[in-house]
Amino acid sequence: MIELEGAEAARSTATGMAAVTTAILAPLKAGDHVVASKALFGSCLYVVQDLLPRYGIETTLVDGLDLDQWQRALRPNTKTFFLESPTNPTLDVLDIAEIAKIAHSGGARLIVDNVFATPIWQSPLSLGADVVVYSATKHIDGQGRCLGGVILSSEAFIAEHIHNFMRQTGPSLSPFNAWVLLKGLETLGVRVRAQTENAAKIAEALANHPKVTRLVYPGRADHPQAATVKKQMGAGSTLVGFEVKDGKAGAFRCLNALKISRISNNLGDAKSLVTHPATTTHQRLAPEARAELGISEGFIRFSAGLEHPDDLIEDFQRALEQV
Ligand SMILES: *Cc1c(COP(=O)(O)O)cnc(C)c1O
């Protein structure tokens, strides 16, 4: 992972959430301040919004696309900026280089959750980020076998903040899971490239479908942050987001009718997976908060697998007839 990411040092963790929690929490103390983009994986939002304040760490959530909000959130005690890009599940693409500059102007570090982009398509450290975290449960394993995570950064950050914290508190990766994940890493590049090709084909097939009211894929010219995608990503990722007609009822009819793509909250798997974020990954949010993030009742997240793209498209077309 160090070679893939261009990092000086890394530590592997038991889960992606262990990587996120350790990377955020270990360097901080009461009185510090954290700024994070509000479009975060549900558990990351819990760490920032619920957990940190209980230990006297102040947090501010911003619209990650709005650079002014990052700038205005900066305080003398701001130690960490945290974001994910593309975001889950609406696939907004945040400008990592610009946000890193703002963080550094105030003496803060930028931690990037790079799960959706994978190390194949995006290298946050080369864009100015200080720390990169992964859930290895996703593309790195890629076959739904075990949980894992990674923290990558400078040697100094690991030595000063992570090494001793992990030794004393124990979020370490088990040896067996480390072996499984290393096997996954051997095929990461070929899987991610093939899954990305599939994602692009599905996005193309769904974009003008009469039952699809909105489609988001970072690899398309009509993506709202297409210029940022071009600047910082090698390709559009393995994920596609789309909204079908008739809200939740329409989405459920489509999901239930799919025969190839499986309903699961995992992503990055060799099998294609579909998720209904409003009732699963983001059910904890208030309806207004979901609406603000663009997670409507009809929104579906698709994680492209390695099946034949023609089969996947045929499956979607048949399922969409049920909407
Ligand atoms: C899944 C995921 C996590 C958490 O990973 P686990 O391995 O499930 O703990 C963190 N961030 C993002 C963006 C994820 O998709």
Describe this structure in words.
With 323 residues, the protein is α/β, with parallel strands linked by helices. It folds into two domains: 2-185, Type I PLP-dependent aspartate aminotransferase-like (Major domain) (Aspartate Aminotransferase, domain 2), CATH 3.40.640; 188-320, Aspartate Aminotransferase, domain 1 (Alpha-Beta Complex). It is 41% helix and 18% strand. The strands form two sheets. Strands 1-7-6-5-4-2-3 form a seven-stranded mixed sheet, sandwiched between helices. Helix 6 (118-121) links the parallel strand 5 (109-113) and strand 6. Helix 11 crosses helix 13 (309-320). The N and C termini lie far apart (42 Å). 51% of the residues are buried. Residues 15-17, 20, 41, 43-44, 84, 88, 113, 115-116, 135, 137-138, 147, 149 line the site of pyridoxal-5'-phosphate. Residues 15-17, 20, 41, 43-44, 84, 88, 113, 115-116, 135, 137-138, 147, 149 line the site of pyridoxal-5'-phosphate (PLP).
